[in-house]
Input
Amino acid sequence: MPAKNRAKEYLESGYYHLYNRGTEKRTIFVDHQDYNVFLGYLKEYLLPKNESELLEKLSDTSISSIERDNILKLLRLNNFHNEITMLAYCLMPNHFHFFIHQASAKSIDKFMNSLGTRYTMYFNKKYKRVGSLYQGVYKGVLIRSEEQFLHLSRYIHQQALPHQPSSYKNYVSDIKDEWVNSQEVLNYFSKTNPNLSYESFIQQKDDLLIQDIILDEE
Output
């Protein structure tokens, strides 16, 4: 039976809260390397692929066979730069949250399946395990209102503060990841009035509409 928050269809140009966790709530990020590998996959998927540069490197006869294989892998790798926009994320030891906009109706499914399969292969090889890493298919909630739009970003960042990997730094510091689009949310807040800033918003209790955008069982 589908989970109540599993979106039955994904809409063109829709905003979604996507999430999944380890099977039986087990850890899916054991150490810093696991977090970094997962974030590296996101970066590769969401930044534009420079195929001309890769092809130029491939034509260089002086590169090693290992370098050549790596370039060929990058050329074959799925890329979702024009399809998926990451507005916010956080990674927790046994689950993750994404705030995503998709361009076409099937972008999310292709992106999440590719990411999930790739990370599971990495994790199973590293920890010498087999089988599914996640507790079923990823889940998704369609964001239907401006209130949900704003409260989702806050909910995700509140989950991660202060120590978990997240997009929060993209919202409150000069550190910016090119593959995270924080500006869509930040446009609602003041850069000059501390009382109307995103930092002030984060400190507020987040209970409005929260039952509509979070996991069934946290």
About this structure: Helices lie at 32-46, 51-58, 65-76, 107-126, 146-160, 168-172, 183-186, 198-203. The radius of gyration is 18 Å. The domain at 15-29+83-212 is CATH 3.30.70 (Alpha-Beta Plaits). The longest strand covers residues 84-92.
